[in-house]
Specification:
Radius of gyration: 22 Å
Largest sheet: none
Mean pLDDT: 82
Shape: flat
Number of helices: 6
Order of helices and strands: HHHHHH
Structural class: mainly alpha
Distance between the termini: 90 Å
């Protein structure tokens, strides 16, 4: 008498189509693709050196960082279990609408209201896209982002960006 195999029957679906539906894999592929296109498009930009940066230095540096980030997210998405990396049913419309709205509010508010209000708009509107964020975390992130933005662009680089609104 043969023993009966009680294991679940193997899935007949190939592995790669299932992996490509994972959100981390798709995000990693998107970041990697954007970085590769950007690096290709900026291939003729002069980069210079770290001490004498030219116009292509920082964009190319950021694109290389984006490529590494995309690769890391892609690898973690491939290695993740299937249950933890499936997209939510119905998608996340809040993030799709509110994150670009936060960026537009920052861009429009920077010149008119100053850095302080523009960063507050960016973090405030952007935080509405996520669920479960505590107000203390949002305020802390906003203060840190505002301070770092001021320290890098106004203090260190000496750019003339209005910090306070003029009423």
């Amino acid at each position: 008498m043969a023993t009966q195999d009680l294991r679940a029957p193997p899935s007949h679906k190939p592995l790669w189509p299932r992996v490509l539906t994972r959100t981390d894999v798709l995000a990693g592929l998107l970041f990697t693709a954007v970085a590769i296109v950007g690096l290709w498009a900026s291939r003729d930009y002069p980069t210079g050196t770290a001490l004498r940066m030219s116009t292509g230095y920082v964009p190319r540096l950021l694109l290389w960082a984006l490529l590494l980030l995309g690769g890391a997210i892609l690898v973690s998405g491939i290695r993740a279990s299937e249950e933890t990396s499936q997209p939510e049913p119905g998608g996340n419309w809040r993030a799709i609408v509110l994150v670009p709205a936060a960026l537009v509010a920052f861009a429009l508010g920077l010149e008119r209201f100053g850095l302080l209000v523009a960063c507050a708009l960016l973090v405030g509107i952007g935080s509405l896209a996520g669920r479960g964020l505590r107000p203390r975390e949002v305020v802390g992130a906003g203060l840190l982002l505002t301070f770092l933005t001021w320290a890098i662009f106004v203090w260190a680089l000496g750019l003339t960006i209005r910090v306070w609104p003029e009423w």
